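Throughout our pipeline, every protein is held as a single compact record rather than as scattered files. Such a record has a labelled line for the sequence and another for the backbone structure tokens. The remainder of this section carries one protein's record, kept here as part of the documentation:
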Amino acid sequence: MAKRRYGDQDGKDKSTPKQGALGESFDAPFRGYINLNLTDEQKATFDPWANSLAPLEALEAFVADGINLSLKFEPKFGGFLASATQRRMGSTNAGLVVTARGREAGTALWRCLFCLTILSHKERWEDTQPLANPDRW
């Protein structure tokens, strides 16, 4: 018998996907980007924040709230792009995306979590930073 590879099962031997909370949906459609412009004072607090337990605590809290995180390498930029998308339909921020870049993967991810932390000081992210213009050239 030939060795099976991932994806060769055609649906066999796969466990049933777990369901979210009753009535809760995690498939919010894209609404737009929030491009947070940090002040010099906010940027000055990043290093102490990044060198504490705060990023790991934020990571767990945001993912548990329905925010999907993504991290990819951008050859054109020569660094990494982290993005955070609120997918929980019940959130006032459903469908919004926050991004951050960095030369190292960890820097991009921590910056993205830092931006989420700042935005989360208010219930609606748009109360801190308006939705970005979708017709930017």
The helical segments are 40-44, 46-50, 54-64, 105-119. The chain has one domain: 32-127. The domain at 32-127 is CATH 3.30.160 (Double Stranded RNA Binding Domain). The first strand starts at residue 32 and ends at 34.
